[in-house]
């Protein structure tokens, strides 16, 4: 990384998608900019590692959602990254013992009807929890709720109907073969980034703004804050003067919990590439299993909500034990010796995230606009939680970073 001094036109806090998007925009037009990143790596919640294997593993974000309008598709291709355009597993029928084709159709119908009720409820004056839209005694309620833990990081009881309805998706979903995190490492090449540099306080009482960090004090004419909501809500990052409404907004947009476990699969050819298995069909606390992602001999297990957080305390062994038990129940006991745990994520325990991606609590869907609103003309906010319609996505974060960069440049021109 390029070395940096301590005063800049713009300082960007956080080297995730929003931060890199903002910094790349500013740097490329000659603005004096620096990125301060608390971790010892860039990418934030987009993180690619190989965990000692031959395959790039996305431990966080992994999908180019709404890919037919996602600006990062063109960015990736211009940088030489291949895009996998195969149909994602959740858009295919589930083929496993105990889950017949008729079961699949019945589940899909129940899920579609639930989303129709949710869409109608979103037009009502008052917001409510999405769990209210489940039909009493519907046999697919638990699985619908489990899917919410994968999509939103939380169970339906903590999900705002109006916020969920505000999410705009085209249902086109692709992947970066070399890894989403690897893409951001490439985008960030040459940017002035200081790693291992947690920001503790932003003093915006006078110009220039003072940024107090573990590596000393930096100053800037403008600051772009891109840290996750849990960091703002907990006041791990402090503001002077205080910004209580920002803490309030962030607290009502908490990060949900999602974790991934990668298992190596011996003799994988008998399984269809990019297929899916549910651990259980009648409980919320179940994982979803992406079998042979990219055709590789792997299973990518996905855990959401309370299950994802609870298993973090048990480590890799606990995640693997849970997953292998579920897979053995679905595929037979013979699968056990063919599965080898490789790596698992711990996003709830990550001190610089505290979770995976944001959702609005019932009654608080308007807090995204509050979080995103600049403070004066010099302090800007960006990140997936600041996106009104693409929250929880990498491209949503990226676009808010570009907007914050444009706003900062407008201030500098004044």
What does this 3D model show about the protein?
- The chain starts with 6 loop residues before the first strand and ends with a helix.
- The mean pLDDT is 96.
- The chain contains twelve helices and 17 strands.
- With 414 residues, it is an alpha/beta fold.
- β9 (209-213) and β10 (216-225) form a beta hairpin.
Set out the fold topology:
Elements: E1 7-13, H1 17-28, E2 33-36, E3 48-49, E4 57-58, H2 71-78, E5 83-84, H3 101-122, H4 141-151, H5 161-166, E6 175-176, H6 180-187, E7 193-194, E8 199-203, E9 209-213, E10 216-225, H7 229-233, E11 238-240, H8 244-251, E12 258-265, E13 275-278, E14 288-291, E15 298-304, H9 305-312, H10 315-331, E16 339-344, H11 367-372, E17 379-381, H12 394-413
Parallel strand pairs: 1-2, 1-10, 2-7, 8-11, 10-17
Antiparallel strand pairs: 3-4, 5-6, 8-9, 9-10, 12-15, 12-16, 13-14, 14-15
Identify the CATH architecture of the largest domain.
Answer: 3-Layer(bba) Sandwich
CATH superfamily heading of the largest domain: FAD/NAD(P)-binding domain
Query: How large, in whole angstroms, is the Cα Rg?
Result: 22 Å
Text of the CATH class of the largest domain: Alpha Beta
CATH topology of the largest domain: FAD/NAD(P)-binding domain
User: How helical, in percent, are the residues?
Assistant: 25-40%
The total beta strand count reads 17
- How big a fraction of the residues is strand? 15-25%
- What's the order of the H and E elements? EHEEEHEHHHEHEEEEHEHEEEEHHEHEH
Mean pLDDT across every amino acid position: 96
C-alpha termini separation: 31 Å
General form:
globular
Low-confidence stretches: none
Number of helices: 12
The biggest sheet, with number of strands, parallel, antiparallel or mixed sense and barrel status, is: 8 strands, mixed
Structural class: alpha/beta
Return the domain count: 2
């Amino acid at each position: 990384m390029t070395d940096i001094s301590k005063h800049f036109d713009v300082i960007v806090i956080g080297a995730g998608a929003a931060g890199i998007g903002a910094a790349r925009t500013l740097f490329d037009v000659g603005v004096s900019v620096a990125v301060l990143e608390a971790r010892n790596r860039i990418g934030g919640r987009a993180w690619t590692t190989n965990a000692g294997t031959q395959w790039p593993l996305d431990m966080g974000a992994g999908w180019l959602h709404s890919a037919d309008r996602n600006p990062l598709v063109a960015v990736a291709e211009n940088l030489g990254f291949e895009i996998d355009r195969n149909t994602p597993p959740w858009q295919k029928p589930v083929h496993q013992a105990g889950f017949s084709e008729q079961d699949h159709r019945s589940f899909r119908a129940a899920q579609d009807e639930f989303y129709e009720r949710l869409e109608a409820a979103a037009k009502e004056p008052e917001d409510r929890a999405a769990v209210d839209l489940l039909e009493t005694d519907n046999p697919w309620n638990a699985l619908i709720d489990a899917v919410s833990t994968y999509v939103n990081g939380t169970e339906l009881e903590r999900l705002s109907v109006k916020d969920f309805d505000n999410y705009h998706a085209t249902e086109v979903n692709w992947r970066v073969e070399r890894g989403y995190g690897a893409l951001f490492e490439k985008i960030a090449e040459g940017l002035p980034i200081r790693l291992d540099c947690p920001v503790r306080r932003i003093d915006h009482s006078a110009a220039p703004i003072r940024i107090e960090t573990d590596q000393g004090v930096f100053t800037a004419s403008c600051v772009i804050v891109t840290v996750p909501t849990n960091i703002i809500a907990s006041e791990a990052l402090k503001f002077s003067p205080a910004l209580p409404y920002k803490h309030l907004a962030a607290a009502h947009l908490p990060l949900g919990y999602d974790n991934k476990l990668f298992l190596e699969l011996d003799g994988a050819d008998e399984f269809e590439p990019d297929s899916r298995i549910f651990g259980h069909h009648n409980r919320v606390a179940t994982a979803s299993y992406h079998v042979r992602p990219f055709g590789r001999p792997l299973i990518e297990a996905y855990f959401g909500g309370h299950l994802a957080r609870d298993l973090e305390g048990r480590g890799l062994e606990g995640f693997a034990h849970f997953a292998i038990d579920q897979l053995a129940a679905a595929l037979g006991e013979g699968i056990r010796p063919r599965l080898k745990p490789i790596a698992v994520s711990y996003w709830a325990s990550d001190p610089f995230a505290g979770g995976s991606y944001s959702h609005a609590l019932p009654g608080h869907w308007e807090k995204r606009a509050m979080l995103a609103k600049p403070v004066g003309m010099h302090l800007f906010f960006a990140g997936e939680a600041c996106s009104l319609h693409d929250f929880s996505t990498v491209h949503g974060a990226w676009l808010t970073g570009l907007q914050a960069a444009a706003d900062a440049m407008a201030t500098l021109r004044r």
